[in-house]
Amino acid sequence: MRLKQVLLGLFMAANAVSFAQENKKEVLFTIDDKPFYTDEFARVYKKNLELVKDDSQKDLNHYLDLFIGYKLKVEKANKLGLQNNASYQSELKSYRAQLSKNYVTDTKVTKELIDEAYKRSLKEVKASHILFNVDENALPADTLKVYNQAMSVRKRILNGEDFETLAVQNSQDPSVKDNKGDLGWFSVFKMVYPFESGAYKTPKGEISMPVRTRFGYHLIKVYDIRDNRGQVTVSHIMTLNGQNPVEAAAAKTTIDDVYKKLQQGESFESLAQQFSQDKSSSGKGGQLQRFGSGELSSDEFENVAFSLKKEGDISQPFQSQFGWHIIKLIEKHPVKSFEDTDVDFEGKIRKDDRSKLINKSLNDKLQAKYKVVQNKKAYKNVFSYLNEKYYTQEWELPGGKDPNEVIFTMEKDKKVKSTEFVTYIFNQQKANLNVKPLSKLYERLYNDFVYSKLSKYYDDNLEKEFPEFSYVMDEYRDGLLLFDLMEKEIWNKAKTDSLGLKNFYESNKANYQWKERVEVNVFSSTKEDVIKKTAQYLKKKKSVDFIKSNINQKGAVDVMVKSGIFEIGNDALPKHQNFNVGITEISHEGNYYFVTQVIKKIEKGPKKLEETKGKVINDYQQYLEAHWVDELKKEFTVKVNQEVFDRVKSQLLIK
């Protein structure tokens, strides 16, 4: 598939479509009475003018021939029915889905969110929180009750009560017993978006207003803000904290002894393999995956790791809640630039709560664009079918009901039936929505359904909405067809048509000739005395194996040999040697000395088909393609409107 995409890129460069639509649209030529227009020809020509290096392709008469040839190939592909192949349809659908992503989103809001995320990524926040649980679909009265609880606790904190004490007493975060609400340091994308925003918008030392997330309400206390430290890669040696005083003392003694060995110059990696009790990293010399602030469960470990300045620096032994450690800095990874994070951040934004802001913005625009008009009577009728069984996924449309009426229209004449909405409601039971009361759930289902229909209508009409989208899709559609056609008619034929290939080779044998060749053994060494000794052995008619075994001793490789048949001038042969049969003079190039044993010389002559088959196939493919268009012109009837073409030429040449 990757090869196809690369080749399609080449086709599309050669047959590219620009986005400017100028000049009056007229029929430039027909193929079997199918019209092809001046606007496309002008776009293609102007786009290619910047790409082609061959001046002949800039000539408009020549370019028209190329353009007609291209369209003939596409018509041939359609005539063969290649556009109906399942693989072609799947590939085209996949490409359209990928391309449409740039159009079915609110790019302005997306850019604003990327900018916001990057600015936040430059800082780290140290914060604690108190969580008051409330379901995101809770009734307004229940939500207000929990909000007031949060405000009551906030007031107590502002009046001087201790945040940690109130966190332990009130927070419904299961981890509060261990951390007293402390979340440590974190940066962008580490928390759900509303919480992240609450933390970054709260000044250092202050308490936020209640922040609503899908978990409930949070009170956030920001202790500190600092520049992002980036990430580090480190190795460590660890001895585990003991279960009793004896084991604890042994762990401390072992880590101290290891540190002394390191000071004596012993290998950190070897000592980690022998003594580290972190079995997940000891086999790798103690190396851990790179990490940033807040990604490990030990602040002590992180702080020591980030305190090391230079690669190779080693910390003194220190203790965490897990045991004793010694850390070696492998590499520091600074915060990435905006350009390096742009694509990554956009992907993350589409996966978290920020995506809701993008969808809402697009939904608002589509609502305004397509003028949704609701049929209030039909809306009430469908709601009357809904009941509490929906919450247990047991709801079905009551028998005898057939709500086949228009529930809303959009874009004046696009009518959406209640039947579609009811089917949507039924299928959404699987999502196990718990929005209450039932009227609120129904309103949400309706709004989501409208958005889905608007989005689909918008996506289906992208070609009408955006000329550039239509041009690119036409370009890709034709390029994909041309690829499949070339594969069928040219590339595969050149590989499988053995008789045609042989005849082509015989007719063009003069193009496949060997230069003068030699069969040789080329000996090389960085030591001149070794090559001299090699030359002496060769003159005594010693074999290659004899020479290698007598010179390369005690595990050393002082001489190497390259054997084979090579054309004179081949890079495999030493320069500045006279390749007559026998033993050459010693030559010197760079750090190497050479002597060559020339076994025989082979005169110039034709290559056998098997010896040059790859090149012959390539040339045969080009030959078939060159004559192919002539055959297509006989198969299809092409009529050029010369008067229109002359007018197009004058317009393009003026510009």
Tell me about this structure.
This protein has 655 residues and is an alpha+beta fold. Among the domains are: 123-227, Roll (Chitinase A, domain 3), CATH 3.10.50; 231-333, Chitinase A, domain 3 (Roll); 371-462, no CATH class; 513-605. The protein is 50% helix and 18% strand. Strands 15, 16, 17, 18 and 19 form a five-stranded antiparallel beta sheet that branches. The chain has a four-stranded antiparallel beta sheet with strand order 4-3-6-5, sandwiched between helices. Strand 1 (27-31) and strand 2 (34-37) form a beta hairpin. Helix 1 crosses helix 20. The longest helix is centred in the last third of the chain and has 30 residues, at 467-496. The chain is flat. It starts with a helix and ends with a helix. Mean pLDDT is 89; it is low at 5-23.
Number of helices: 25
Strands, count: 21
Which spans have pLDDT < 50 for at least 5 consecutive residues?
Answer: 5-23
Q: Return the CATH class of the domain at 123-227.
A: Alpha Beta
Architecture per CATH nomenclature, i.e. the level-2 architecture of the domain at 123-227:
Roll
Report the sheet with the most strands, covering strand number, pairing sense and barrel closure: 5 strands, antiparallel
- The end-to-end span amounts to 40 Å
CATH topology description of the domain at 123-227:
Chitinase A, domain 3
Average pLDDT across residues?
89
Approximate strand percentage: 15-25%
